[in-house]
Specification:
Length: 240
């Protein structure tokens, strides 16, 4: 049984005032919360168990999504406290709920047409990341994907990390050694970004990736949300 983690704890500051009363992953596109699009796709890919990280307006998630049974899923909520733990801290905080096998992790505030069934059950290294073409708001990209499917923190041309990946627990095994004394590491629970761990694993050849050339949106502003809403509403009824 595959497990998945959805990052949904962010404050959504760039989406204000929309996020003053609604967490960003619960904002709707085409009449459906952003996070619900992920839940549908995860269920279709054979995932049965999903952990959702929460912080900002956390009480709204179970009110809107319930226990996941409407999608054939079991949802568990991992509350991070009033201050979000960033991606690394959030993943670490949820790790005890995710089991021992590799798991899918998805940013709750993106949208794509990627079929999650194509994600590997067993990444070759510690992580398998889905990369996309650089959007206009992030032209410099994040990582280089080489011809062998390995990702590198240095080099060009770069692609942008989509916020979709498959991870092994081992990526977090020595997190404190990699993160060092960065702000937030001494908090309880600790707060830190995932990117330094990914870059360290890349240096050892332990992060692979794939280039997704289909539709993808980082729903980071009200304008992008409105554009996504228009796009989804204009699709043919048979589109998936």
């Amino acid at each position: 049984m595959r497990h998945a983690l959805i990052f949904a704890a962010g404050l959504g500051e760039r989406m204000r005032p929309l996020t003053d009363r609604t967490p960003k992953p619960l904002l709707e596109a085409a009449g459906k919360p952003l996070v619900a699009w992920h839940l549908e796709k995860l269920a279709a890919a054979g995932v049965h168990y999903v952990v959702i990280n929460t912080s900002h307006l956390a009480e709204q998630f179970p009110d809107v999504l319930g226990d996941g049974s409407r999608w054939g899923l079991r949802i568990r909520y991992a509350y991070e406290g009033p201050t979000p733990l960033e991606t690394g801290g959030g993943m670490l905080n949820a790790l005890s709920l995710l089991g021992e096998a590799p798991f899918i992790a998805v940013n709750g505030d993106i949208h794509s047409d990627l079929d999650y069934a194509c994600l590997p059950a067993e990444p070759q290294g510690d992580a398998h990341l889905v990369m996309v073409d650089n959007p206009a708001h992030h032209p410099e990209g994040d990582f280089l994907l080489d011809a062998h499917g390995l990702l590198h923190a240095q080099g060009a041309p770069r692609l942008t990390f989509s916020g979709i990946g498959v991870y092994r627990r081992e990526l977090l095994q020595h997190w404190r050694r990699v993160i060092g004394d960065a702000p937030g590491v001494d908090a309880n629970p600790p707060r830190f970004k995932l990117a330094p761990l990914l870059r360290a694993a890349m240096a050892d050849g332990r992060v692979h990736g794939v280039h997704h050339r289909g539709a993808w949106t980082d729903v980071g502003t009200p304008e992008r949300l409105a554009e996504l809403d228009r796009h989804l509403r204009q699709r043919p009824a048979t589109a998936t």
